[in-house]
Amino acid sequence: MNVYVQENQPPGVPPLALTGERTLPDVPAENYWFRRHLVVYEWIAARVGGGRVLDMACGEGYGSNALAQRASGVVGLDANPDAYEHARLRYRARNLTFARGLVETFGEAGSFDAVVFLQTIEHVFDPVAVLEHLGSLLRPGGVVYVSTPNVLTLAPPGAEKSANPWHLREYRAEEFRSLCRSVFPSVEVLGVFHARKLRLHELALTLGWDAVHARLRLTKPFYDRFTPAIATSDFALRPDRLDGALDFLAVCRP
Q1: Which residues pair with 98 in a beta bridge?
Q2: CATH number of the domain enclosing 173
Q3: What's the whole-model pTM score?
Q4: Looking at per-residue confidence, does 41 or 213 come out higher?
């Protein structure tokens, strides 16, 4: 497996290596996945202004930092010691702190206006218990945001899950909705889709672009430029046609 390490980190901040368990910024070859995850954080950040937010399984910390642009206070939690150390050294703001702990047990009841749990429910052994715990951390009127990949677009056709060794289960839209509704009475599910230049690229693939760039020996030069240029604006969230979504985002209210 190729190992990619973050580039151009601030002085004193140890770079993280890309293992496949989490996405990272500052790795040009990983930019597609980083932006695909960041767009969901930005969507949530626009809706948590003035609130106290817990970012569960925050990884490298970029999402917690995005939430802190709008929230009154953000706690980013991760169990991995390297990710925690990197996050607390890299992302510093008056309203942003990081902690080490387990998603199953961290936090006090009624402490947060929003709990964010992105691209992690597929990693846990008991998702219902985790969702119940997240709900217990909310203040009245609070919201839990949960995202996960769509098995129909991540895994090979007909497969129950992808080859990702860290994923215990991957969900179809209705399976994910049912999981969230088993804990929360109000659940809205949105999908993440390609937009702008990624949508154009998707259409080009249906017209045989893969064969063209391979035949012309343009594959590496093209994607060496195309992938780092992807932005969060090249993705969109919407509630329809969820079977074709890349990822799902559930907005859950008690």
Answers
A1: 76
A2: 3.40.50.150
A3: 0.95
A4: 41
